[in-house]
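F.,

This is the one I mentioned.
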């Protein structure tokens, strides 16, 4: 048998074979070379996630553009992988515009969404020719003024609030009527916004957008949203003669965070949307709009592993805590959303016990994995959290004066440092006294 690669080791962790030598040797190698806590991303998984989505949709939607929501993970090395695969950038701030340009995308490939954009953000979008995904009538007027002042036309779409509940966590449910995002179809708010945009000579209407939430498991919410959006697109054509370049149905595809669970397979979603789409396109006639999608989590979450080292193990009268050298400062999702990340104890093969994996931050809520059946590790062993590639490092902070972790990209048996570990100097670098 040929020796196992780093990629094989990561696959062993993913498929619950953390006791196998492939897993131990990969994790020890990575930890001794780069230290812990460490974010590790498997290039092959990013590529296969992207290609699976593209293949599922490209066969059914001839005009297709796939964006990547940079906020899920903005490391330039990952952006380079996704850009090479053909993804365009979806950004939510001026900082992410800078990130996208730095990664080599052209300004006019960028789609800029945010419910609260400042004047400098609008001006930058105008300057570089990005599509400004407008969230309010107020923003529309500001964009028109900004473009007129620059002697340009600003390309816009409107973010629509379709009033659909995709049955995900409340905090990441963005298309429900009470959410802060978008212009409501209800009450004619979205219609009035398109009507107004038509009157503004410095505004070029290019598309329509929605994004109804994140970690969505079912197709129902997407299909209901597509029906509403496409009926509205037909109304815009009929009443205003508007032909849009694109209809963006957002991101939000779920990935599995539990063993045995399935996320939302792109082929299932594509098959559910296809009949609704082709019916609307036939009715629209003319040059039909392209379908745009913009997942973040789906492309990068499963590629990511957070490698931590056990500091100590403690049994109280109530529980056993495994104290590791990362916490909610490193991986916020468990504390913020009660999110579940699978935890693997590397190399241990004892009988499973009920354990809590606790972080090293001084907060009671700093539990990375609660009440899991795991073999008991010892100090110095490694605990690895799976599916940490999205909203992991991106949400990390230096709370408790802990420098940011390093990030590594694995390609087969090669590991490349893609962000050096933070230093204590970094913590004070910006202080001026
Ligand atoms: C966050 C976000 C996405 C990506 O969401 P995922 O759940 O990571 O796929 C897409 N579009 C917008 C507007 C977003 O804010």
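My design for it:
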């Amino acid at each position: 048998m040929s020796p196992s690669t780093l990629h094989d080791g990561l696959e062993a962790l993913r498929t619950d074979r953390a006791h196998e030598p492939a897993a131990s040797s990969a994790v020890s190698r990575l930890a001794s070379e780069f230290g812990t806590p460490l974010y590790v991303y498997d290039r092959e998984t990013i590529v296969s996630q992207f290609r699976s989505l593209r293949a599922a949709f490209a066969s059914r939607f001839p005009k297709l553009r796939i964006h990547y929501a940079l906020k899920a993970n903005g490391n330039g090395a990952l952006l380079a992988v996704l850009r090479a695969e053909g993804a365009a950038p979806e950004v939510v701030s001026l900082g992410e515009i800078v990130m996208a340009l730095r990664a080599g995308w052209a300004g006019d490939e960028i789609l800029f969404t945010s419910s609260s954009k400042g004047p400098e953000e609008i001006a930058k979008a105008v300057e570089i020719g990005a599509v400004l995904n407008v969230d309010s009538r107020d923003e529309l007027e500001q964009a028109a003024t900004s473009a007129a002042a620059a002697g340009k036309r600003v390309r816009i779409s409107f973010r629509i609030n379709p009033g659909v509940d995709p049955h995900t966590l409340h905090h990441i449910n963005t298309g429900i009527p009470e959410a802060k995002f978008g212009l409501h179809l209800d009450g004619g708010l979205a219609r009035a916004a398109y009507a107004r945009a038509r009157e503004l000579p410095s505004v070029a209407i290019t598309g329509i957008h929605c994004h109804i939430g994140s970690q969505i498991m079912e197709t129902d919410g997407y299909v209901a949203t597509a029906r509403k959006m496409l009926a509205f697109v037909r109304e815009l054509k009929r009443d205003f003669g508007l032909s849009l370049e694109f209809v963006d149905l957002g991101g939000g595809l779920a990935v599995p965070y539990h063993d045995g669970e399935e996320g939302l397979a792109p082929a299932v979603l594509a098959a559910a949307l296809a009949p609704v789409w082709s019916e609307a396109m036939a009715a629209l006639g003319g040059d039909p709009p392209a379908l745009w999608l913009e997942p973040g989590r789906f492309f990068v979450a499963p590629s990511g592993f957070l490698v931590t080292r056990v500091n100590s193990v403690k049994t109280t009268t109530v529980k056993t805590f495994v104290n590791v050298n990362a916490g909610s400062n490193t991986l916020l999702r468990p504390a913020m959303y009660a999110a579940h990340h699978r935890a693997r104890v590397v190399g241990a093969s004892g009988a499973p016990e009920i354990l809590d994996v606790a972080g090293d931050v001084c907060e009671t809520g700093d539990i990375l994995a609660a009440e899991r059946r795991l073999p008991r590790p010892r100090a110095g062993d490694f605990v690895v959290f799976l599916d940490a590639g999205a909203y992991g490092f991106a949400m990390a902070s230096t709370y408790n004066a802990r420098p940011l972790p390093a990030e590594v990209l694995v390609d087969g048996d090669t590991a490349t440092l893609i962000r050096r570990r933070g230093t204590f100097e970094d913590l004070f670098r910006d202080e001026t006294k």
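Residues 69, 71-72, 90, 92, 113, 211, 214, 250-253, 294-298, 390 surround pyridoxal-5'-phosphate (CB under 6 Å).

Talk soon.
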